[in-house]
Amino acid sequence: MNNQRGMLAIISGFSGAGKGTVVKEILETYEEAYCLSISATTRKPREGEVDGQHYFFLEQEDFKQKIEEDGFLEHACYVNNYYGTPKEFVFNKLEQGISVILEIEMQGALKVKERYPETVLIFVTPPTAQELEERLRGRGTETEEVIQSRLSRAGEEVLYMDKYDYIVLNETGRVAECAANIHHIIESEKEKAAYCQDLIGELAEGLTRYHKEGE
User: Fold this and answer.
1) pLDDT averaged over the chain?
2) Strand arrangement of the beta sheet that strand 99-102 belongs to
3) Does residue 13 lie within any of the structural domains?
4) Which band of pLDDT confidence, cut at 50, 70 and 90, is reported for residue 193?
5) Which of 62, 133, 146, 193 would give a disulfide with 142, using CB separation of 3.0 to 4.6 Å?
């Protein structure tokens, strides 16, 4: 079904679950099928960041105007800067038949799902709490305080995992398998009847006349 719309998929996970690595694997392995949503922000560009590639950089008043115009799938303010997912970019890609991946945290994911129920929510997790802790410690870049903070946050997030449509294991050394599982989930979601209304409509238009002729 080459004329099919793309699927909006949100990938979330605990800090240390490896979701960023998994998303990178998906984009590289299935590059023609997916794109990563580009967020808009009011923060200043960092060295090497390109507008329209890493972020859409907006002035604060322009961002607020887009909020009033309902121009974001979701948005939030963090450390005095606004961040949001522009609708126009996402919907244009979906219409082109490209599935869009949003890598966002749980609160934002649930907001998008509430507004757009057809969105597929995927939560990436290691198989055990012990492995999550080992990954966080294995980074070697964070203090004990930060590690404990991330584990505490994970303890809160686990209570809402059942709000997601799918839970996908990201086992150590098996990133490609995790990425393939997510790809298969998204492809199977696109075959559901509720997502194929355009196809059903086209078939109905062409076949209804046979039903009338046979009456």
Assistant:
1) 91
2) 34-36, 99-102, 8-13, 120-125, 166-169
3) yes
4) low
5) 146
